[in-house]
Design a protein that fits this description.
This protein is an alpha/beta fold. The chain has twelve helices and 18 strands.
Length: 347
C-alpha cells in the first residue's frame, strides 16, 4: 500500500509522523507533507504546490490519501478527480486532534473502510464509516472481492446485489473452489434464480440469470521468448490459450521466466498491462524444479539458456506446484505454460 498524508497544523503534522512510523513496512509506503505558513517549523516536508495540484498527483499514484484537517478541505480537494469506485484511491479524513477518522471515498474496493479502522487504532480515534452494509453488519461483495484479491467484473451488478442484501433478500453463490469459514447468511449455495455471484476462472459461465463474476488472480504464466519479442506477440498466444482453457485474462496473477528475460521490454509491457507480477529465476533455481509429468525439452532453448525448458519450469517454480494445467505451447517465438496457485475461498 502507498499512503499519502497531508496535514495543515502542527498537531496534525505530529499525527502524520505517528502514522508514518506505524504503517511504514517493507510492503507499505507512507509519505507526509505539511501545508501552511509555518509548516517549515513542524518537522515534515513542506508542500510548496497548491493542494489541488498535490491531490491530482496523489490520485494518480497512491493507493490511499489522508487529509488531517477539516472534511470540507478534503472534499473540495478531491472533487475534480473523482471518477469511479473501480479506480479511485481510498480517501480518508482525520481531525487535527485525532479524535475521529472518516472514510470518505472508495470504502470497499479502495479499502478506505479497513484503513479507517487501522488508523483509528493507531491514533486512538473513533472510526467513522457510513456505508450501509458495514453499518448493518451485512456481507459486502466489493469488500469481499478486495480482501480475497478477486477481480469484480460488474460494478452495477455489485451495487444491485448490495441493495438486495440490504432488503433482507438472499443472493445465490456458486464457486469452483473450496469454501472455508462460515458462508454469510445473505448467500445461498442452493439458489439459482435471480442475482448470483460466481467465483471462477471462467468469466463467461453464468450459473444465474444475472451473474456477477469474481475471478481469483491465481494463474501463473511461464513465458519464454526470443529477444525483441513484442507485447503483441506475447499477448496473442496468451489470449489464444486462455480462451481454449476458458480462463479469464483477469485471472493472471504472476508471470514467470528465466532471469535472462527480466528486462525484456515486451514481457514487461505485458505484465504492466495486465497488472501481473513478473518473477525471474536463475538457471540453477529452475534446474531444481520438479514436474510430475516431466518437461518438454528443446535443444535450441538449452543452447541459449542452459535449460531445455524455461516456460514450464518457471510456471511451476512461481506457483509452488508440481503439476501444470497447460503444458508448453509455442507460437511466433513465444512459449507458454500455465500453473495454478493453491487457492480456497475464505469467508
Amino acid at each position: 500500500m502507498k499512503l499519502a498524508v497531508i496535514a495543515f497544523t502542527r498537531s496534525g503534522c505530529r499525527l502524520a509522523q505517528k502514522i508514518r512510523e506505524a504503517v511504514t513496512t517493507k510492503e507499505n509506503e507512507c509519505e507526509i507533507w505539511g501545508k501552511g505558513k509555518e509548516a517549515r517549523s513542524w518537522g515534515v516536508p513542506v508542500l510548496e504546490e497548491s493542494l489541488r495540484e498535490w491531490t491530482g498527483r496523489q490520485f494518480a499514484s497512491q493507493d490511499a490519501l489522508l487529509y488531517i484537517g477539516a472534511a470540507g478541505i478534503a472534499v473540495r480537494a478531491i472533487a475534480p478527480f473523482v471518477e469511479s469506485k473501480a479506480s479511485d484511491p481510498a480517501v480518508l479524513c482525520m481531525d487535527e486532534q485525532g479524535k475521529f477518522v472518516i472514510s470518505l471515498l472508495s470504502g470497499h474496493l479502495g479499502g478506505a473502510n479497513e484503513l479507517t479502522k487501522e488508523l483509528a487504532l493507531i491514533c486512538g480515534a473513533m472510526p467513522v464509516i457510513t456505508t450501509a452494509t458495514d453499518v448493518g453488519g451485512r456481507f459486502s461483495v466489493d469488500s469481499f472481492a478486495r480482501k480475497e484479491h478477486l477481480y469484480l467484473d460488474n460494478l452495477k451488478l455489485a451495487k444491485r446485489i448490495s441493495a438486495e442484501i440490504l432488503e433482507n433478500r438472499t443472493v445465490g453463490l456458486y464457486s469452483d473452489f473450496e469454501l472455508t469459514g462460515q458462508v454469510p447468511l445473505e448467500l445461498s449455495l442452493h439458489k439459482r434464480e435471480g442475482l448470483g455471484i460466481s467465483i471462477s476462472l471462467d468469466d463467461t459461465y453464468d450459473p444465474f440469470p444475472e451473474t456477477l463474476h469474481l475471478v481469483p488472480k491465481i494463474l501463473v504464466l511461464g513465458i519464454g521468448c526470443k529477444r525483441g519479442t513484442s507485447k503483441g506477440q506475447i499477448e496473442a498466444l496468451v489470449k489464444k490459450v486462455m480462451v481454449q482453457n476458458q480462463f479469464s485474462m483477469h485471472s493472471i496473477g504472476k508471470v514467470a521466466s528465466i532471469d535472462l528475460k527480466k528486462d525484456e521490454p515486451g514481457l514487461l509491457e505485458f505484465c504492466q498491462d495486465y497488472g501481473a507480477q513478473l518473477l525471474a529465476y536463475g538457471r540453477e533455481e529452475l534446474e531444481q524444479v520438479p514436474c510430475e509429468e516431466g518437461f518438454s525439452e528443446s535443444e535450441f532453448v538449452k543452447e541459449v539458456t542452459g535449460l531445455g525448458n524455461v516456460c514450464e519450469r518457471s510456471a511451476l517454480k512461481a506457483s509452488g506446484r508440481t503439476r501444470l494445467i497447460q503444458r508448453k505451447t509455442a507460437e511466433h517465438g513465444v512459449t507458454l505454460a500455465i500453473a495454478l496457485e493453491d487457492y480456497v475461498v475464505r469467508f
